[in-house]
Design goal:
- By secondary structure, this protein is of the alpha+beta class.
- It has a domain at 2-52: YefM-like domain (YefM-like fold, 3-Layer(aba) Sandwich), CATH 3.40.1620.10.
- It has helices at 6-11, 13-21, 41-48, 53-58; strands at 2-5, 26-30, 33-38.
- The longest helix is centred in the N-terminal third of the chain and has 9 residues, at 13-21.
- It comes from Methylocella tundrae.
- This is Antitoxin.
- InterPro entries: Antitoxin_Phd/YefM (IPR006442), YefM-like_sf (IPR036165).
- Antitoxin component of a type II toxin-antitoxin (TA) system.
């Protein structure tokens, strides 16, 4: 992914958007710091549909009886 300064992106916005549509997103920098990313709407839509790991866990069809009971016996006896 290429980096482009904000002032250059403004001057060539149409070309930056065309590249994003071709699958070549660009990172926009301001004062040397990464500030934004230009990517196609299709790619943004795809990425925004990816659920978080937490949401995947919450929707998992698991009931309490599906989980095995944890064996809490110590693996070794502590030396005193």
């Amino acid at each position: 992914m290429r980096e482009i300064q904000l002032r250059d992106a403004k001057a060539t916005l149409s070309a930056v958007v065309d590249e994003a549509l071709q699958g070549k997103p660009a990172i926009i920098t301001r004062h040397g710091k990464r500030q934004a990313v230009i990517l196609s709407y299709e790619e943004w839509e795809r990425l925004s549909q990816v659920p978080s790991f937490g949401r995947l866990l919450m929707t998992a069809p698991v009931a309490a009886e599906d989980l095995s009971n944890r064996d809490r016996t110590p693996l070794r006896t502590p030396d005193l």
